[in-house]
């Protein structure tokens, strides 16, 4: 800490000074850094940056049909982003379940259930992401 910061912290009351010192010297845990990094990656993979920059429409109602997914590869709706981010997060959660199942080998029933749930989540995310890509490639037909 700089001397000016030390001086201002020493002038504070004791409890406030202790809180300030704890706040300035505290480092984030590995778990928090990991969660923030994975959340950022899922946000980018899902098209969140594109949505923030271009401000697309939320969805569309055209010729009596309601579209959540933009029927072309070149653009997207906000709903595209939400759907893809949710599916990527579901896939990552499935991978996390598979990993956790390997850590509980002494409880085979629990390990098997977690493995089945993890594989189901990964497969659901994969199938729905592929389906949405096929929908966009076919032009919404």
Any idea how many domains?
1
Q: Structural class, judged by helices and strands?
A: mainly alpha
Total strands: 2
Which strand order does the major sheet show?
1-2
Biggest β-sheet, characterized?
Answer: 2 strands, antiparallel
Low-confidence stretches: none
Which outline best applies?
Answer: flat
Beta-strand share of residues: under 5%
Number of helices: 6
What would you report as the Rg, rounded to the nearest angstrom? 23 Å
What percentage of residues falls in helices of 4 or more residues? over 70%
Mean pLDDT: 87
- What is the helix/strand order? HHHHEEHH
Gap between N and C termini: 62 Å
Q: How are the secondary structure elements laid out?
A:
Layout: H1 3-10, H2 14-25, H3 30-45, H4 48-54, E1 60-62, E2 65-67, H5 78-103, H6 108-137
Antiparallel strand pairs: 1-2
């Amino acid at each position: 800490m700089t001397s000016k910061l030390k001086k201002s912290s020493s002038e504070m009351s004791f409890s406030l000074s202790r809180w300030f010192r704890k706040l300035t010297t505290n480092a984030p845990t590995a778990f928090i850094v990991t969660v923030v990094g994975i959340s950022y990656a899922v946000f980018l993979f899902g098209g969140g940056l594109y949505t923030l920059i271009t401000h697309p429409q939320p969805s569309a109602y055209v010729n009596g049909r309601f579209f959540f997914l933009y029927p072309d590869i070149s653009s997207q709706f906000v709903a595209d982003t939400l759907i893809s981010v949710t599916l990527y997060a579901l896939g990552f959660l499935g991978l996390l379940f598979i990993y956790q199942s390997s850590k509980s080998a002494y409880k085979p029933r629990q390990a098997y259930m977690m493995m089945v749930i993890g594989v189901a989540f990964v497969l659901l995310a994969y199938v729905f992401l592929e389906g949405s890509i096929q929908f966009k490639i076919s032009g919404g037909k």
